[in-house]
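[step 3/7] inverse_fold.run input=structure_tokens len=501
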């Protein structure tokens, strides 16, 4: 009797825990991870095509991801994306205009260079700019040849060296830094020649520095407002849900978050950064296939840290950009005067200095006080000992934030279009988007936005027409060998679209 009672109790417990877990699992057509511009653009595309049964799981308490504004020194400043990069035909520029985002076209010619003793050496840099320009022309010709003749890729450093540019002095180094590292957030030694420059080619070189006090992220908020009404927002946008595990089956994908909630979608879409994917903080069951993991590990996160300083008064030059050709290279080399007309009002007294690549880990790990001392040492070199201490300092930490693990993806040498196809290809019903997966504009806001739309369309094709993307056929062709890839590209691309029964 006792035994029967125990068995009944066990059975009841099993039933109730099963019921409990069933109750806790939310079932949706599509589950999207990440409410940055990619996740929001994907959700909006689903909505516009009649799929309303989706949920967005966002690990933080807000939408916008790497488009983030905070209050500092009496104004709001952008911790992440700040420029609309390229205006002609750029969809982000179109959105910026649609939502009246205020800002200023950056004037990169309005620049002064100071050396380690504070002397203005801008004129001396003329000859260096000219030589760099010549090397750039060489670099661009070579890039065209690589693309046309399918030649092997090289790094920007190699191309610049062969073009006759090999920076040795602090002045030469800062000139190059301003043109390259400041853009790619990574060293020229590791950045691809073949794959850089596409953004400028497609959208021109003009860049719009957003100063809108609603934030660059107002674009993401406005896109979300078009399909998430405040009443239903909580149902379809779930904040503070950090995805920990992703389980795939033939019929769907189940996501578990750190608070124990479970969501199952017939389809899943990951839009987290490549930094998050390569950090292994999310467990995939079964493991992601080798061809996908290989691609995830191939890509790099560029590191970019915008340090804001609020002073009691302005003591620096009126130029928009102030470059420091210092002796400890490349410490605190690029400064922005945020009081030039069109940015913040006079009396705001805020300077922005950007640290890039190898500088960032040290800065993120040390205290803000130490960073302030380092920064002030450089400013004293440039402007003398009588300058005031800052009233406050703001040091964003993108690298050590487990929701990002870096600033934006940089395209390393040898990664080709095929690698992007694999990076963005679905694994069963699990799709992959986010800026890093866009083959032309990775690293930029437009890359995130367009990747979200592309991946949502791929899901829609599968869900509504039964035309489902698969990378298996391409994987069978092998992984590298760019010239072979060119021949195989068309049949491979055609084979990527398999009709699912
Ligand atoms: C410092 C900096 C400067 C930049 N400057 C520019 C610029 O000037 N111009 C430009 O065009 N681009 C710039 N970028 C790049 C641009 O911000 C990004 O390319 C773009 O915002 C990426 O959008 P996304 O939706 O792909 O990714 P994200 O914005 O990273 O969105 C992904 C979302 O996923 C969430 N997430 C992560 N892990 C989990 C998890 N486990 N569970 C649930 N949610 C999770 C994150 O919180 C995030 O909200 C900059 C970026 C940085 C950091």
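[step 3/7] decode complete -> sequence:
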């Amino acid at each position: 009797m006792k035994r029967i009672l125990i068995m009944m109790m066990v059975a009841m417990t099993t039933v109730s825990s099963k019921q409990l877990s069933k109750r806790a699992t939310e079932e949706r057509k599509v589950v999207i991870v990440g409410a940055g511009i990619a996740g929001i653009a994907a959700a909006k595309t689903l909505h516009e095509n009649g799929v309303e049964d989706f949920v967005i799981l966002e690990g933080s308490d807000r939408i916008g991801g790497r488009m983030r504004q905070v209050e500092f020194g009496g104004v709001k400043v952008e911790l992440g994306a700040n420029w609309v990069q390229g205006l002609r035909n750029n969809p982000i520029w179109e959105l910026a205009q649609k939502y009246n985002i205020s800002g200023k076209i950056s004037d990169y010619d309005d620049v002064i260079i100071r050396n380690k003793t504070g002397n203005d050496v801008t004129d001396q840099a003329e000859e260096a700019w000219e030589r760099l320009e010549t090397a750039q022309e060489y670099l661009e010709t070579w890039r065209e040849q690589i693309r046309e003749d399918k030649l092997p890729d090289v790094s920007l450093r190699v191309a610049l060296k062969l073009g006759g540019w090999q920076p040795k002095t602090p002045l030469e180094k800062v000139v190059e830094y301003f043109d390259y590292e400041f853009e790619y957030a990574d060293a020229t030694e590791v950045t691809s020649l073949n794959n850089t420059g596409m953004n400028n080619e497609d959208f021109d070189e003009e860049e719009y520095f957003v100063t809108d006090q609603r934030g660059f992220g107002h674009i993401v908020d406005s896109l979300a407002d078009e399909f998430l009404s405040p009443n239903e927002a909580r149902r379809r946008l779930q904040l503070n849900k950090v995805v920990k595990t992703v389980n795939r089956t033939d019929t769907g994908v189940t996501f578990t978050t750190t608070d124990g909630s479970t969501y199952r979608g017939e389809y899943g879409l990951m839009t987290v950064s490549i930094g998050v994917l390569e950090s292994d903080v999310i467990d995939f069951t079964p493991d992601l296939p080798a061809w996908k993991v290989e691609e995830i590990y191939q890509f790099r996160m560029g590191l970019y840290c915008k340090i804001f300083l609020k002073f009691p008064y302005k003591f620096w030059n009126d130029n928009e950009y102030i470059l420091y050709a210092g002796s400890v290279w490349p410490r605190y080399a690029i400064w922005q005067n945020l009081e030039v007309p069109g940015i913040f009002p006079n009396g705001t007294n805020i300077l922005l200095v950007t640290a890039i690549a190898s500088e960032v880990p040290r800065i993120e790990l040390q205290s803000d006080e130490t960073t302030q001392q380092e920064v002030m040492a450089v400013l004293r070199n440039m402007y003398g000992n009588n300058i005031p201490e800052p009233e406050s300092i703001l040091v964003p930490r993108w690298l050590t934030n487990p929701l990002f693990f870096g600033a934006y993806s940089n395209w390393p040498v040898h990664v080709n279009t095929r690698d992007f196809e694999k990076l963005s290809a679905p694994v069963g019903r699990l799709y992959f988007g986010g800026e890093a997966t866009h083959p032309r504009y990775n690293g930029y806001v437009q890359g995130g936005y367009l990747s979200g739309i592309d991946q949502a369309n791929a899901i829609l094709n599968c869900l509504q027409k039964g035309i489902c993307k698969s990378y298996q056929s391409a994987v069978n062709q092998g992984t590298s060998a760019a010239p072979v890839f060119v021949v195989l590209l068309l049949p491979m691309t055609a084979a990527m679209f398999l009709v699912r029964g």
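[step 4/7] annotate
Residues 1-22, 477-501 have pLDDT under 50 and may be disordered.
Residues 78-212+304-397 form a domain with the Polyamine Oxidase; Chain A, domain 2 fold (CATH 3.90.660.10).
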